Amino acid sequence: MKTLDEMLSLRLISREQHAEIGSWIAEARTPQAIMRMPAPLWRALELASVLMDVDADLRQPPLFEADL
């Protein structure tokens, strides 16, 4: 929910979208249920995620600890 709140504060989603997405996620019991979110809400969430670059850490090479 923190990311969703941040999307709202950055005005990437509306208050209405925030409430609807938050409600959908709260009621979903499985990842598959979340994936059934209505298309307009899913698109809003996806666009906000891209604009926030939430996947940036996944594109970084793994860090390996030096042998001590």
Describe this protein's structure.
The structure is a single chain. The mean pLDDT is 88. This protein has four helices and no strands. It is globular and about 45 Å long. The protein is an all-alpha fold and 68 residues long. The termini are far apart. Helix 1 runs antiparallel to helix 2.
Number of helices: 4
| Low-pLDDT regions | none
Mean pLDDT across residues: 88
Succession of helices and strands: HHHH
Concise description?
With 68 residues, the chain is mostly helical. It is built from 4 helices and no strands. The N and C termini lie far apart (39 Å).
Characteristic terms for this protein:
68 residues; mainly alpha; 59% helix
Write the topology of this structure.
Blueprint: H1 2-9, H2 15-27, H3 31-35, H4 39-52
Helix pairs in contact: 1-2
